[in-house]
Amino acid sequence: MSGTDGENKPNEYPRNDTERVRRTVQPSLSRRKLRRRLLQWGVGALALLVLLGGAIAWIGFRAGQIRGNLEATTQLLPQLKKELLANDVARASNTVASLSEHTAAAKAASNDPLWKLASGLPWIGHNLTAASEVATTADDVTRLAAQPLVGAFESLDWKSLTPVNGAVPLAPLQKAAPSVVAAANSVELSYQRLAGIDQAALLPQIAAPLQSAKTQLDELRGVLSTASDAAQLLPPMMGTEGPRNYLLLIQNNAEVRSSGGIPGALAQLHAENGKITLTAQDSASAMGSFTPPVKVDAAQETIYSTRMGSYMQDVNMTPDFPTAASTARAMWLQRHPDQAIDGVISIDPVALALVLKATGPINVATALPERAGFGDLPTNLTSTNLVPVLLSQVYAEIQEPALQDAYFAEVAKNVFDMVAAGNAPGDKLVQSLATGVSENRILMWSAHSDEQAILGTQGIGGAISGPSVPAAGFGVYFNDGTGAKMDYYVKRTVQLVQRCNADGYAQYTAKITMTNTAPADAATALPAYVTGNAVFGIPSGSVATNVVAYGPSQARAQQARVDGKSVGIASHTHAERPVGVVRVQLAPGQKKTIEVDFSKVVQTNPAQLRVTPTIQQKSDVVLPEQKAKGCPGN
Description:
Elements: H1 17-85, H2 89-110, H3 113-118, H4 124-155, H5 171-195, H6 204-237, E1 244-257, E2 260-272, E3 275-283, H7 284-287, H8 298-304, H9 307-310, H10 321-335, E4 343-347, H11 349-359, E5 362-363, E6 380-381, H12 386-397, H13 401-420, H14 426-438, E7 442-446, H15 449-455, E8 473-480, E9 490-502, E10 505-516, H16 522-525, H17 528-531, E11 543-550, E12 556-562, E13 565-567, E14 570-574, E15 577-586, E16 591-601, E17 608-611, H18 618-621
Helix pairs in contact: 1-2, 1-4, 2-4, 4-5, 4-6, 5-6, 11-12, 11-13, 11-14
């Protein structure tokens, strides 16, 4: 047929049967191939999901191993600390063995190949890496610190430090020193490793144990750093490499100074091969004034006056013990030019009382009855009555200052004789001295630069700046302005109060409460030597105090208040730290609250507070920090 009606139109009718079959079957084949591919993809995706789920489950299993083992170590560490302090080496060895098993298991889990591979993934990888660092650090601390320390304790029994024939056996300490130093170095490196981890991007499940590990390591590194320095310093300072001579300052807290109290009684100590003897004695009042004054740092002289370099009684108006000690040494050498002085040691009656807890009572009856003017002072002194006798009764019974100093010197000599005689077991003596150091009642400075470099890193060095001072370090110190012994009756509390941030900076207030507990009739009931007899213009029975507050470097001493009312504040700078001075006067029974505000505190570290040691226990004086609340935008 011809015409359009008879033509084959494209895509409508096949030209023959073969083409009809081809066009019918081809779509069916394509659909089957597509279904096969989809099935293959589905199987592959399912397999991938299974593998991914298995990998996640395996990583979760490893995470559980790491967490479980690290939690076990957290429980064992306090136990190890207790055993070491008790000198129970056998149990400590077993505890370290258990620690080693747990930390090794945690480290092995964190080294799993799949865990390592996942550590390279975005987001979750940083968390896995942090967990690995914690596990590795825990294992390092166990292997490189805890195990060597327990080994050192096997040769170093604290009781072995008990003096024999007047000398402290130093060989065990020297033998243990390398292990202690190595342990301290390992812990410090481990702490720095964890401190370098950015916690901001971590999950809470990782950030919390990381922070816990850092906190424990920070505490441990402080203890080990002190032990390491002591192990290195004590033998040479106690004369194993040649005789040493030290100036001893006995600080009298009844007349307060920044580092404790007026250094009225003085002595020279001789150390040789572990044996310490008292070889010479003097008193600050007998030394008189120094003209021209001993040269003192100009910044400190501005704050504390030229009296620091003019009178031995005032060298420690500054809280910076290296300045006070070097000034005292210069004064001593002027009066005793034939005596070499290798360093200066300071101690107060409260620390002496702590020593008596270890030695037992002392009796000064054999010396005192031969001297007139000592009144009815007790001759048997204990850890309980020593402080009130030395800081109160002595002034009621002894009118002459020279005899007061003689009594102090006699007591100090007897305490040292008791220690030298071996009456104090080494472990108890170490514990008493450690408490005195922790409360800043025992301070030490060395004229040997290498030794002083180490002392400057520790609290016992009493420095106002440098590595021993926390970044966010505050200080509150007291200097008597009465010229008397009335501080025995003053009770104090000191507290840091965190305020809301301003202009992007932290703000703090040092809050000091002072109460004069002297009797209402103190002017007549107390000896004139105690009240000062108004010689310096302060009414008898009243107490005048210069309150000196230090803030962290770069901060500002902004303003001050007494009982809520603004008062003038003398603002200074010492070692790049702001210093505010407020003078306060208290009548008998009177109580006042002093507040010194510090602004523009740039440090984000936890704030720490150091305070002048008084007759009160440190825990009664330094109150817990009061945190800021309800601060908008903080």
